[in-house]
Predict the 3D structure of the following.
Amino acid sequence: MRLLKIFFGILFVIFAYLQLNDPDSGTWIAIYSFAALACFMSIRELWPSWVFYVLAAGYLVGAILQWPPEFEGIFFGETAMRSLNIELARESLGLGICAVVMAVIGKWG
């Protein structure tokens, strides 16, 4: 489990770095940085499990609210940004990943 926490902590740091060119980068860097911090704090067991459940619930609510009005996929490559719906779907997916990781850490971390 320790390696999984390290893996996702580093992954969330990479996610935060990739947000630098986003128009609302401050928000997304904070979101992913806090998820990375939570992963690293769980390695040392410095936070109780209920904190991770609260984070999971918050990320899940954010993922639901961020879901696009019309799903057009999460294309990668040349057709990356055809519409705002693709960007919203990607953001929702990122929040969903954070929610799942926080729930797993809360349960088994």
Remarks:
- The chain has four helices and no strands.
- The mean pLDDT is 91.
